[in-house]
What does this fold into?
Amino acid sequence: MRIDRIDLTLVRLPLVRVFKTSSSQKSHIDHILIRAEADGLVGWGECASPSDPYYCPETIETCWHILRDFLLPDAIGRKWGTIEELVGFSAKVKGNNFAKAGLEMACWDLLGKAQGRSIGAMLGGSAVSIASGVSLGIEESLPALLRLVDQYIGEGYKRIKLKIAPGWDIDVVRAVRERHPDLPLQVDANSAYTLDDSDHLRRLDEFGLLLIEQPLAHDDIIDHARLQAILTTPVCLDESIHSADDARKAIDIAACRIINIKVSRVGGLLEAKRVHDVCLARGIPVWCGGMHEFGIGRAANLAVSSLPGFTLPGDISGSDKYYRDDLVEPPLLATNGSIPVPCGPGLGVTPIEDRIVRNALRTLTLTEDGVCR
Ligand code: SMG
Ligand code: MG
It folds into this structure.
C-alpha cells in the first residue's frame, strides 16, 4: 500500500458527565482523528491522548507535533505491505506511543479494507462479543457514586471499576461492597500512592477486589513488586506498561498479576497483541483499558479484546456512557453488559464525516508534496 494523503482533525466532544481521577478532571475530550488515503481506500485512526500530561507524558498537542513533523512525513509516499513494515518507518522515534497508535490504527483499517477482513480477525481474535465493564470517576459525594453504581449494574454491566485517591478509597470501597456483596469490583489509583501507604492499601484486601490498578508511580515496577508481595489483592499495571518487553519484565519480577492493555499506551494494535501474547504464555490475565475513545478507537479496542487472553471484563463501555452523539455508524453500544466485536472490513465502523467536521477544532492535510493547511 502507499499512503498519498493524510488529514488530521482535532475533534472535541462534550462528556455527558464530568470524569475525575486522582490526577485529572475532564468535561470534554479532544482526540485527533487520522484519515489516510491509500490505493483508493480510506483508513481511519484515533489518537486517544489526554489533553494534559497527568496520566502520561504525552498530550494531544505533542501527538499533533509528532504526527505532523515526524510520523506522517516518514509514512507518506512509501510502499508497505504489512504493519510490521509500516511501524518500522518510525522505529527511530522514541516513545510517543499515543501518536504512533493513531497512525498505525488507520493503517490497520486500510489493510483490513484491502483484504476484506476485520482487524479482530487479522489479529487472530475469535470472540464475537466482549464482556463490558464501566469505570466510575471520583464523585462529589458517596450517595452520587452509589447511584451510578446501581445504574450501571441495572444496565447489565459486568463489573465496576472505582477510581480511588487518598481520602476517597477504603470507605468508598466498603460502601459499594456492602451494598453489592457479589459484584465484580476493582479500583484504579492512577499512581496516587507510594510504598509508605502499604499498610493503608492492605486494608483493601478484605473487600475481595478483582484487582488494584496502578497504585504506585507511573514509571515504576520495582516498588509495585514490593507492594504485590504484601497484598492478597492482585496488582494490575496500566501506566507502567508501554511494550511487550515491559510486560515481560514486570511479570519476571512479580510486579503485578494482571495487566491492563491499552492500544494507545503501547503504541498500537501490533504491540497490544504482543503484550497479550507474552501475558497469555505466562498465565497473566489481561483486559482492555480505555482512554474515553470515540467510536474509531473504541472499535479498535473491541478488535483487540477478541483475543483469547482477554479474560476479564474491560473498560470498553457503550459509547453512550460518555457521549451523546458518537462519531461512527453503527453506534457501539452494550446490551446486557456485552458489546459485539465489529466484523466488517478493517475497523468495521463508518465515521460520520459531517459530524466530525461539525465538532472539529482544527484540521491539517499532508500530501506527498508537503503540508496543505
Ligand atoms: O475509556 O472508559 C474509559 C476510561 C477508562 O478509567 C479509564 N481510564 O487510568 O484506566 C485509566 C483511565 C485513564 C483515562 S483518565 C486519565
Ligand atoms: Mg488505569
